[in-house]
Design a protein that fits this description.
The chain has 337 residues and is α/β, with parallel strands linked by helices. Helix content is 34%, strand content 12%. The mean pLDDT is 95.
Amino acid sequence: MQDIIKSLRAGISIGNTLDAFDKSIKISDAPDKTETSWGNPVITQELVDAYIEAGLNVIRIPVTWTGHFGDAPDYTIEEAWLKRIKEVVDYAYKRGAYAILNLHHENWNYPYYENEERACIIMTALWSQLAAEFAAYDEHLIFEGQNEPRKVGTPLEWNGGDEEGWAVVNSTNAAFVNTVRQGTGYNKSRYLMIPGYAANCTEGIKHIEIPEDDRVIVSVHAYEPYDFALNTEGRAQWNHDTEKIDSLMDELYNRFTKNNIPVIIGEFGAMNKDNEDDRAAWVEYYLKAAKKVGICCLWWDNGLFDGDGERFGLFDRYTYKCRYLKVLNGIESGSRT
């Protein structure tokens, strides 16, 4: 079961693009407007080629489907949107890289008991369509059922959840896995990724129920240590602070990979604070620690380099050049077999 991870070196999540959303725009009316509504240009073959040529052989494609599918009972995905998503998947898949396709920023899968039945129905409807569309794609296409299902806007949003949240996330994960497995072609055997509550890397991972399926991968998001990696007001110096990274990898190993359950850290990174040397040293250590326990990591590249937001941009999407070669070299060195 861990064989798939041995084939994955390191990767990138193309954030704030196909997962961007503007409720006033329909893809059928303005095909480029949704994808560019958060300030990034459209994804191109040249961009994906740049990732692959830099040694990143896993391309995660976050997609927001909310606003691009119809009403009950069919929840039919807009034809133009599905066509565009397939085009981007093909940018990676046809180059022999691994592509990960997910549901991202959805507004219907909040993990409350009162929403559980409806969320499972929509989950089933969407993944039935996607499984049918991609049935002929082999294991180089991985499906990720959902991104960070959580109780948005509550004190529980990012702290690991509660019993209700854990239970409903497990229920929607099960609906996803069951739906894909009922499909035809490679859906019977393709690798499927499932998160815990909010894809949380501390409390959330303790409550993930793994379906009885030998091709399920656990999805985790981990920006450690937080003060250096994710906190916009945090420190710029890493100071070789390895405790959080080491304890995370130990936890993931003992809970999952030691038991032959693969793990992909689908989002990680350290934001730009004019500290490239620190980030390069940090990412090399992070990936070496992950490699030791058989975990593949994907850098969250949201295309943002400056300003007050979360500055995780790595590749310039206009020139297709990496802006931080030391960081890229750290990724290559850290993920080397």
